Amino acid sequence: MTQSTIPMNGLFSCEYFDIESKHTKGILRIFVGKPPGFDSNARYPVIYTLDGNASFASLTGTQRMLTQGGEMPPSFVIGIGYPGETLWESMARRNRDYAPSDPGEAEIRALGATEKAGGADFLRFLQEELKPLIERRYPVDPKNSTLQGVSLGGLFGVWVLLTEPGAFQNYILGSPAIWWRQEEFWQWEQSYADCHKDLPASVFVGAGALENKDSLRADALKIAEKNIVLREQVEQVISWNDEHGWPEVADLVPRLVNQLRQRSFPGLRIHSHIFPDESHMSVPAAISSRGLRYVFGSWVPCADLTTRCGRA
């Protein structure tokens, strides 16, 4: 079941529609940001962003500003979210859909996840239902698609990159929850390297420098003090992590990227950036901006050049 598109008030050239997925067995809400004044005879890059209820408006605004500045081409932005009256209600199913493997005790404590992993079904929805539908409805280039995901969505993106990398050409992965299942992502990376000689993709992975043990614990204590609704759950998370170890995403991100670089995959272009003074909740907008400029080639990191760096 696919409903007609509905214009979005206040967001120019944007609309949304709902689609019922046979793979995830639920209804998803799809937000579409069109390039203003687009040519229906042309073909445009397409950017798919997870957690669309929270990320779509911000990413669309960033993408359009970068387009005006000549730092990326006009593009379609597709936000993948869910119906709901509140943000929390609309994001409730993400813990199932983005999980690449069944949650363990640490994952359940952190996310409140209770369902089995739905990542495989969600990827099938993307590849077999959503992408073909978008390509029929809108003038997008199926050979120029980007996946953006943050936190648990970033974990899903890492999993897709290391298991089905051809699903997208570009990946922007923010603060990926690669602490999942005691850093299970190392197994995905090794399995891919054992069976492949190339990983053709352009990949940007970012995180906030404050995504470390001391800062995360301090933030959790602050939340437990000020948020009565979440206090009990957060206190349990603090107790668990004090005993078993806190996730160190700011450390894991560059380690993953360095490992992939050392594989010397000829088709892989990859960069990581740890943003100073940014936390898990504050860094996504910065990752979107830097990530878009990187995967579309308008910004070149100093580490990739021998003479100068900056705008290409």
From TrEMBL:
<dbReference type="InterPro" id="IPR000801">
    <property type="entry name" value="Esterase-like"/>
</dbReference>
<keyword id="KW-0378">Hydrolase</keyword>
<dbReference type="InterPro" id="IPR052558">
    <property type="entry name" value="Siderophore_Hydrolase_D"/>
</dbReference>
<dbReference type="InterPro" id="IPR029058">
    <property type="entry name" value="AB_hydrolase_fold"/>
</dbReference>
<comment type="similarity">
    <text>Belongs to the esterase D family.</text>
</comment>
<protein>
    <recommendedName>
        <fullName>Esterase</fullName>
    </recommendedName>
</protein>
<dbReference type="Pfam" id="PF00756">
    <property type="entry name" value="Esterase"/>
</dbReference>
<dbReference type="GO" id="GO:0016788">
    <property type="term" value="F:hydrolase activity, acting on ester bonds"/>
</dbReference>
